[in-house]
Amino acid sequence: MLATFLGAGEVLTGKTLPKTRGSDNVFFLMSATWHWIIFHLFLATALWIDLGVIHRRPETVTTRKALAWSAVWMSMAMLFCLGIYFVDGQHKSVLFLTGYLIEQS
User: Fold this and answer.
1) DSSP designation for 24
2) pLDDT per position as a tens digit, 38-67
3) Statement to judge: residues 39 and 5 lie in one domain
4) CB of 37 within 8 A of CB of 31?
5) How far apart are CA 88 and CA 22, in angstroms?
6) Exposure of 58 by Cβ count < 10 A (0-12 exposed, 13-18 middle, 19+ buried)?
7) How many angstroms separate the CA atoms of 87 and 38, rounded?
8) Are 31 and 92 in contact (CB under 8 A)?
């Protein structure tokens, strides 16, 4: 199955695979340009708030504070997964969630 996504399906099976649109391809979770623009603006804003506003002064990080911030970032990832679900469907949201959980482990 991975070979199909990477385009090696033709080589392995000898069959020509149908070309897919951007939103049908697993490597382009959101094909519309404005989705990517919104994503990058949101990411830049979140990093600015985290690094430039909240953590401006160095301080000791307690376990409670670390857990709270971990919960904030994980909930943002789940909101992003929910957005993928509504924009591109269940399959792609499961792909994102699987990759996120593997990365966390």
Assistant:
1) G
2) 889 989 998 898 888 877 788 888 999 999
3) no
4) no
5) 11
6) exposed
7) 13
8) no
The DSSP line for 58-82 is --PPPHHHHHHHHHHHHHHHHHHHH
57 shares a domain with 21: no
Count CA within 13 A, CB hemisphere, residue 27.
6
Same domain for 54 and 80, yes or no, is: yes
Q: What is the pTM assigned to this prediction? A: 0.58
- Environment class of 81 (CB within 10 Å of its CB; exposed 0-12, middle 13-18, buried 19+): middle
Identity of the residue numbered 18 = P
In terms of residue numbers, what domain contains 8? 1-31
Type of residue at 9: G
* One domain for residues 16 and 60: no
Judgement on whether residues 14 and 39 belong to the same structural domain of the protein: no
Are 40 and 90 part of one and the same domain? yes
CA 58: distance to chain centroid? 29
Number of domains in the chain: 2
